[in-house]
Amino acid sequence: MTDDEKQSRITHNGVRPALGALSGLLAGFAALAVAALAAALVRPQAGPVIVVGGAAIDRTPTPVKDWAVRNFGTDDKLVLQLGILAVLVLFAIGLGVLALRYRRSAAAGVLLFGVVGAAAAISRPDSAGFTDALPSVVGAVVAAGVLFLLAATLRTAASGPCAPSGAGRAGSATAGTAAEAGTESGSGPSPEPGWDRRGFVITATAVAAASAGAGLLGRALSGSTSRDAVASRAGVTLPVPASRAAAIPAGARLRIAGVSPFVTPNKDFYRVDTALVVPKVDAAAWRLRIHGDGVQRPLTLTFDDLLRRELIERDITLTCVSNEVGGSYAGTARWIGVHLAGLLAECGVRPPSRGGRADQLVARSVDGMTIGSPVEDVMDGRDALLAVGMNGRPLPFEHGFPARMVVPGLYGYVSACKWIEDIELTSFDSYDAYWVKRKWAREAPVKTQSRIDTPKPFARPKAGPVMVAGVAWAQHRGIDKVEVRIDDGPWQEARLAAEDSRDTWRQWSYDWRATRGGHTLTVRATDRTGEVQTAKRTGTVPDGASGRHSVVVSVD
Question: Which is nearest to 19 in space by CA: 202, 197, 212, 206?
Fold first, then answer.
């Protein structure tokens, strides 16, 4: 072998794996783009990343979910999607390199991913059936074909680096066939250094262009559905509620830097759910069905039907069961909606205490989520709402447009169904909702909690007057007292802001004469039933965290 031939082989052996990896990436790109186009034609929620991500969420152990919410907050879904894409990239690279010697095996590996995606699509709670499997299957078939073709151009042998084009192509076909037979079985000679550079470039360019076109077309088609939903929301004018919320008392809002605002702006309101992609529902096409045990007059409502009903407006604080002690997953908004108990009564539903047959209300969202609420609580006179408005505007898509449930005093996972489309009356014994199947409690009233908003942990305030302040909540019971303790000293009563209603949190403050050194500040609340916030620390599972919030500061 001449020096030139040796150098050619070295260069070839270094370039081929890189081009194999590129082939895998192009095949992966083609899969996702074609699948996106197919999903746009079938159902946008059937895209492989969405269905695989949803299946991953469904099967993730509760402690892991809690860890993700705690560490990534509302970005947990973005992190999951990026993780799925990263795994796909790694596998695409691996299959591309494998295809250099084992084209059929690599293509089969791609098809296996399609099977996984199809299985995930069919198993989703909101699955529309086998049609949801089409995007994953079509994407995988296209990707397998792309990888097979690109690998063929890299496996084609030439008679030499300077062979005439005609002879090179004739020899390539023969050698390529021989190499295919040998390498697929793991025996026989390796391909010669030559490869079809022109064929690879043309094929790769065509694949990239076609994939980009398919992806853009899929995005445009999916976007048209979203645009209809956005337009429907923009066209909503909320009627004036028949029962307006009372004005928030002037003394309910403390003017203290660092304290959470009494009313949480929509953009800052916490969001914890399992939807990888926020559902965008066209209000004109939306329907709500009420049916089940004890429903004497089943009802189907349109969004306009809701708006024509008597609406009420209430200030209500919501809390997520994933909220750790001192966490931020609580917020207050002014909600507008239909009184849910009245709607159920209109359908002939009675609570168990009055002889009703059903003790559980199962709410289903458009993305397949199921949330079970106690019928007794929903109909006990509290302001349980089928909400259509939030802080004076139609619900944001992130918070459930066109309609959602809001039930004061219950954690969100047993009450706050967003994007609701179905209400079924049943019993707790006959049906377990989504979170109950994952070892959360069937019933979960909000626990009495308080939080220090200022000073922040590890703050370094100056010695002298320091304002300690925060919020406390015990929805549907109300907050009666908040106390602060410095280190191991006695409990000192804090000043409570005025109460808006027992369904909202209350701000509080405490004037502390800070002395130099390290200190631990602890807060506890007492609700209207006389229950004092417990010192016993528990995690969020199965029915919400308990314990007292404390912060450590160093006073200069």
Answer: 197
pLDDT for the residue numbered 7: 44
Quickly count: other Cβ atoms within 10 Å of residue 404's Cβ: 23
Q: If you write DSSP's letter for every residue of 147-172 in order, what string do you get?
A: HHHHHHHHH---S-TT--HHHHHHHH
Residue 122: HSE in the Cβ half-sphere, 13 Å Cα cutoff: 13
Give the separation between CA 179 and CA 187, rounded to whole angstroms.
9
Q: Which two tokens stand for residue 326?
A: 């001192």
CA angle 345/360/442 to nearest 5° reads 145
Q: How many CB atoms lie within 10 A of CB 159?
A: 17
pLDDT of residue 188: 39
Q: Distance of alpha carbon 551 from its chain centroid, rounded?
A: 30
Cα separation, 512 vs 282, whole angstroms: 53
Find all residues with CB under 8 Å of 361, minimum gap 6, and list them. Answer: 344, 372, 373, 374, 375, 378, 423, 424, 425
| Closest C-alpha to 58, from 374, 271, 270, 276 | 276
> Tokens standing for 545?
């965290």
pLDDT value of position 16: 80
Q: Give the type of residue at 346.
A: E
Q: How many other CB atoms are found less than 10 A from the CB of residue 329?
A: 22
pLDDT in tens, 53-102: 888 888 888 788 778 877 787 777 788 888 888 999 999 999 999 999 99
**By C-alpha distance, which of 377, 376, 365, 434 is closest to 408?**
377
Structure token digits, residue 153 = 């151009």
Distance CA 72, CA 485 (A): 31
CB 391 within 8 A of CB 263: yes
Taking the C-alpha atoms of residue 500 and residue 473, their distance in angstroms, rounded to an integer, is 12
Per-residue pLDDT, 76: 79
Question: Percentage helix, strand, coil, to 5, in the chain?
Answer: 40, 20, 35
Residue ranges, the chain, pLDDT below 70: 1-14, 156-194
In angstroms, the CA 443 to CA 543 distance is: 8
Count Cβ atoms below 10 Å from residue 290 Cβ, excluding itself: 21
Handedness of CA 58, 432, 129, 45 (dihedral sign): negative
